[in-house]
Amino acid sequence: KENQKLGQHILYKDSKLRGLAYVAVGKIGRRSPHRLTKDIQVVQTFFDALCQEEGDTRLAVQESLSMMSDAFINLDDTNKQLMEALLLQTIDKVEPQARLVTVQYALTVFPSDHIPSRYILMLGAGDIKEDVRAESVKALRKTHTSSFIKQTDKNVLPDFVKMVTYVVEKDLDVLANMFITKC
């Protein structure tokens, strides 16, 4: 027990070791996607770490998340909804790396006619950081390299009326939250 506690303490203190651990999980996720897709909590933990870690460790988390993204393409409906909620939360984070990975997940995990992911890409297209903005615009225009475009994706767009309705609903939610926090 003492050795286990000491090992945990070292892991928490040594950012280089944590970075290596993050990358290792990403590699495992890429080789054995079924190990990750059972529980979205792993991705949520990594997105949280992306906002909490600093420097090279943050880059390791970002790399790991990028490696894992393909594992989440064929999620069941419940996990898709959880992933949507996670990405909608993360696109508003302060850290540009979190927003960039969110845009990459919106593009990779969901088909091009998926309304919430298109909304995320629209938010990313207005981002203050150039790399987030450029990635989002590329995704919306479908000019990504072939590694980002799914082979079965035929550039299908979401229904216009449904998309506009979704955007208006989200904007009303934002306005309502702003009003509630000011009162």
What can you tell me about this protein's structure?
- By secondary structure, this protein is mainly alpha-helical.
- The chain is globular, with a radius of gyration of 18 Å.
- 28% of the residues are buried.
- The N and C termini lie far apart (51 Å).
- It is built from ten helices and no strands.
- It has two domains: 1-72; 77-147 and 154-182, no CATH class.
Task: Fill in the keyword field for this structure.
single chain, 183 residues, mainly alpha, 2 domains, disordered N terminus, ARM-type_fold, repeat, molecular adaptor activity
Proportion in β-strands: under 5%
User: Structurally, how many domains make up the residues?
Assistant: 2
Classify the secondary structure makeup into a structural class.
mainly alpha
The radius of gyration computed from the alpha-carbon positions, rounded to a whole number of angstroms, is: 18 Å
Question: SSE order, as H and E?
Answer: HHHHHHHHHH
The count of β-strands is 0
| Main β sheet profile | none
Percent range for helical residues?
Answer: over 70%
Low-confidence stretches: 1-10, 143-149
Detail the topology: elements first, then pairings.
Elements: H1 2-13, H2 15-31, H3 34-37, H4 41-52, H5 55-68, H6 77-90, H7 96-109, H8 115-125, H9 130-141, H10 160-182
Helix pairs in contact: 2-5, 4-5, 5-7, 6-7, 7-8, 7-9, 8-9, 8-10
Give a quick precis of the structure:
Residues 13-124 form the Proteasome component Ecm29 N-terminal domain. This protein has 183 residues and is mostly helical.
